[in-house]
Amino acid sequence: MTTPTTAMVLAAGLGTRMRPLTDDRPKALVEVGGRALIDHVLDRLAEAGVTTAVVNVHWFADRLQAHLAGRTTPRVVISDEREALLETGGGLKKARPLLGDDPVFVANIDSVWIDRGDAIADLARLWDPTKMDACLLLARREGSIGFEGDGDFFLAEDGRLTFRGDAPSAPFAYMGLHITGPDYADGGPAGPFSLSPLWRASAAAGRLYGCVLDGDWMHVGDPQARDEAEARLARNTPSAHPGESRDPVLK
């Protein structure tokens, strides 16, 4: 399948677990390794061929929007949630008119990773809308930074996902990036709602798939995880950062 060229980037959260780092900025502008979290994500998407990123904003929305105005690649379109925070499903539903009609990436802003392969290309190759509602990028639970849960999914040989359910643990965690149709959340309720119930319905129907990152995943959800991620990145060779202008306030 063709790699999506549009992405929905979920950047409207309050970042309460990241306090005090989010007392004066959105979580998306917390820096890891000298770069804002949202720029780590947008750079990955740009490298994969994404040309348009729809970014939802809420907490310190003006500051985030001003920062994003400094980017040239990908082109950024704002989905404004200043009046009400809509969660993942509600955010995707509100942004629907901005996303076009083709499949899209949907990305969180709290994932940073070191790729030993080409995870986004692997995800795009697996994606098949004739048999999938969504295709998720996963990480192995062991060895991940900042993830302390019992895992989210079991993965079949054909890539089909099942939720952990009553099992004490599962080997894979969702790492914050997936492909879906732009209308996937259209049937959700008015107001805020999560994508999780939609994924559970898709999994029950055999239409939720995924593939596993060959690399190191850092879930940057709190200040300790941010520090651990910075230490891990410091041991890795720096990469190029296309199309972005640093926010001078954050230098």
Descriptors:
alpha/beta; 251 residues; 7 helices; two-stranded antiparallel sheet; 7-stranded mixed sheet
Describe this structure in words.
- It is a single chain.
- This protein has helices spanning 37-47, 61-68, 87-94, 96-99, 119-126, 196-204, 223-234, and strands spanning 6-10, 31-32, 35-36, 52-57, 75-80, 104-108, 111-115, 134-140, 153-155, 161-163, 172-180, 208-212, 215-219.
- The protein has 251 residues and is of the alpha/beta class.
- The strands form 4 sheets. The chain has a 7-stranded mixed beta sheet with strand order 5-4-1-6-11-8-12, sandwiched between helices. It has a two-stranded antiparallel sheet with strand order 2-3. A two-stranded antiparallel ribbon has the order 7-13.
- The protein starts with 5 loop residues before the first strand and ends in a 17-residue tail after the last helix.
- The relative contact order is 0.21.
- The model is unreliable at 238-251 (pLDDT under 50).
Radius of gyration: 17 Å
Number of strands: 13
Into which percentage range does the β-strand content fall? 25-35%
Largest sheet: 7 strands, mixed
Distance between the termini: 40 Å
Mean pLDDT, rounded to whole units? 91
- Poorly predicted spans: 238-251
Structural class by sheet pairing and helices? alpha/beta
Q: Please tally the helical runs, counting DSSP H or I stretches of 4 or more residues.
A: 7
- Written as H for each helix and E for each strand, in order along the chain, the element string is EEEHEHEHHEEHEEEEHEEH
Strand order of the largest sheet: 5-4-1-6-11-8-12
Shape: globular
Helix content: 10-25%
